[in-house]
């Protein structure tokens, strides 16, 4: 009998889409969820014999495996820098050990030929089922709001480069961050149109654009998709909200509130104050929020110097920054721009909950909502019959104890 065909029973406080079942149970078989609900209902459904082996576990949470849409690496591996799929795998496994069972590997702005090469390499990992696909962060981004992106590699919108990257990624390029005000992005014949035609979701971000420019891109993309687009780490890498120069943030929040946008939040306590995260959940609802890590190579490993594509990054006390001489205009002189996160997605969920976001909402924004963005609702991100048996078990402080992927235990040693 292969590991995948085994019946696995997991018991604990089960976190469902809108409720927590105190004595809950998940029964998996063949790598899929067969049952998820209360022990009482499980007994009624005939799962008594399987349940007998598994005692109640009131001090644990049982969550769907987490889904991270924005992740540049971890465990010392930097997805924008890999030249082989094997080099990227430690980054995938670093996050998987902490409960992220589905992720998009994020690139950063680089020379076109580098982007095409990296897309081809990471597509191998997607074909092998290790990652769900790729997120390209750039290169059609704002110079002023570039954050950690290399200014020399930013460029105007190019539908040719979109086509080259999509071809190299063999169907696995899933999202691309674009700034609406960069020439060649918004409007007929632009990058946003080419992305939608290629089946790639445009994500608005790293933008110094006006409210009107953001609104125009959102309107264009949602009309073409018939579905919401995303905003890349709302607030970070954007012109700040000012009441006389509202910029893109107000437009994104308004779009999210009416269901036309899903906003990423790096709710790690470093990129955003927890009160900002809590307020956005209150404003637009968990179904329009995706919690992400924006993790880079240092996630899960020591402080030090790391690469993020063409840029060098210094990590000090878990905060990654571009060293001061290259600081972007508008950032405090003593601190370079933040250059990605060092948290795992479960840490972001914990931080959001501590900041006042209800547990079921924080979990939904790290599971079912990103799954919906990927078109994987019912497949990942929720413990429902038929879904992949991707499960994260934590203690009552949301520290990972056990991870299953396709119903098979992931080694969490060292997590
Ligand atoms: Zn990023």
From TrEMBL:
Q: What's the top EC group for this one?
A: hydrolase
Keyword terms, alphabetized: Carbohydrate metabolism, Hydrolase, Metal-binding
Q: Which Gene3D superfamilies match?
A: Metal-dependent hydrolases, Urease, subunit C, domain 1
- Similarity annotation: Belongs to the metallo-dependent hydrolases superfamily. NagA family.
Name the SUPFAM superfamilies on file: Composite domain of metallo-dependent hydrolases, Metallo-dependent hydrolases
The EC number of this protein is 3.5.1.25
Task: Please identify the protein, giving its name as recorded.
Answer: N-acetylglucosamine-6-phosphate deacetylase
Coiled-coil zones = none
GO MF terms listed in the record are:
N-acetylglucosamine-6-phosphate deacetylase activity
Q: Which Pfam families match?
A: Amidohydro_1
Domain (Amidohydrolase-related) ranges: 61-397
């Amino acid at each position: 009998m292969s590991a995948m065909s085994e019946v696995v029973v997991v018991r604990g406080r089960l976190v469902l889409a809108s409720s927590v079942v105190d004595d809950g149970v998940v029964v998996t078989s063949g790598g899929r969820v067969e049952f998820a609900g209360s022990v009482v209902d499980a007994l009624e459904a005939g799962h008594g014999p399987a349940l007998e082996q598994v005692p109640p576990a009131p001090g644990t949470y049982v969550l769907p495996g987490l889904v991270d849409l924005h992740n540049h690496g971890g465990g010392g591996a930097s997805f924008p820098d890999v030249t082989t799929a094997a080099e990227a795998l430690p980054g995938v496994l670093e996050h998987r050990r902490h409960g992220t069972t589905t992720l998009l590997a994020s690139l950063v702005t680089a020379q076109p030929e580098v982007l095409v090469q990296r897309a081809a390499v990471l597509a191998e990992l997607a074909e092998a089922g290790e990652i769900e696909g790729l997120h390209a962060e750039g290169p059609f981004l704002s110079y002023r709001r570039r954050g950690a992106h290399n200014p020399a590699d930013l460029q105007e919108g190019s539908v040719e480069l979109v086509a080259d990257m999509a071809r190299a990624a063999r169907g696995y390029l899933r999202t691309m961050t674009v700034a609406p005000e960069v020439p060649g992005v918004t409007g007929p014949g632009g990058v946003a149109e080419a992305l939608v035609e290629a089946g790639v979701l445009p994500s608005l971000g790293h933008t110094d654009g006006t409210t009107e420019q953001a609104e125009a891109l959102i309107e264009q993309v949602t009309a073409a998709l018939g579905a919401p687009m995303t905003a890349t780490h709302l607030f970070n890498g954007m012109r700040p909200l000012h009441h006389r120069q509202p910029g893109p943030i107000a437009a994104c929040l308004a779009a999210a509130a009416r269901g036309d946008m899903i906003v990423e939040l790096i709710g790690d306590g470093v990129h955003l104050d927890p009160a900002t995260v809590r307020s956005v959940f209150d404003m637009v609802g968990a179904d329009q929020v995706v919690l992400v890590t924006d993790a880079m190579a240092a996630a899960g490993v020591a402080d030090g110097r790391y690469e993020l594509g063409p840029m060098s990054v210094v990590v000090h006390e878990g905060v990654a920054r571009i060293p001061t001489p290259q600081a972007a205009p508008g950032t405090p002189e003593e601190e370079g721009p933040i250059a990605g996160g060092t948290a795992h997605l479960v840490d972001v969920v914990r931080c959001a909950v501590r900041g006042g976001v209800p547990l079921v909402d924080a979990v939904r924004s790290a599971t079912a909502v990103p799954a919906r963005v990927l078109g994987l609702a019912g497949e990942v991100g929720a413990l429902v019959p038929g879904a992949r048996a991707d499960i994260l078990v934590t203690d009552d402080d949301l520290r990972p104890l056990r991870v299953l992927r396709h119903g098979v235990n992931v080694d969490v040693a060292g997590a």
